Amino acid sequence: MASELREGEHVLLIDQKSREFLVRLEHGKRFHSHHGFVEHDRVIGQQEGSTVRSSMGSPFLVLRP
């Protein structure tokens, strides 16, 4: 069962080419890639398995490692 993602947790952001990026969630931080950035605050509170979009509109699947 998916559960809410919290600050301090490590998550995998997975892009459309199945590349995995390990990120520790912190309020006010951003994950940057060539696909734009993802605000950690947009991920915190989401359910595991959610998809978030970067500043350039690229989707990232969010999973726990």
Short structural summary:
This protein has 1 helix and 6 strands, in the order ββββαββ. It has one helix spanning 40-43, and strands spanning 10-14, 20-24, 30-33, 36-39, 51-53, 59-63. The strands form 2 sheets. A 4-stranded antiparallel sheet has the order 2-1-6-5, with no helix packed on it. Strands 3-4 form a two-stranded antiparallel ribbon.
Overall mean confidence score, pLDDT: 97
Strand content: 35-45%
Please tell me the total number of domains: 1
What gap, in angstroms, lies between the N and C termini?
Answer: 15 Å
> pLDDT below 50 for ≥5 consecutive residues: which ranges?
none
Main pleated sheet: 4 strands, antiparallel
Percent range for helical residues? under 10%
What pattern of helices and strands is seen along the backbone?
EEEEHEE
Shape: globular
CATH topology: Vcp-like ATPase, Chain A, domain 2
Counting H and I runs of at least 4 residues, what is the number of helices? 1
Question: Oligomer, anyone?
Answer: single chain
- Per CATH, which architecture? Roll
Class by helix and strand content? mainly beta
Order the strands across the largest sheet as they lie in space. 2-1-6-5
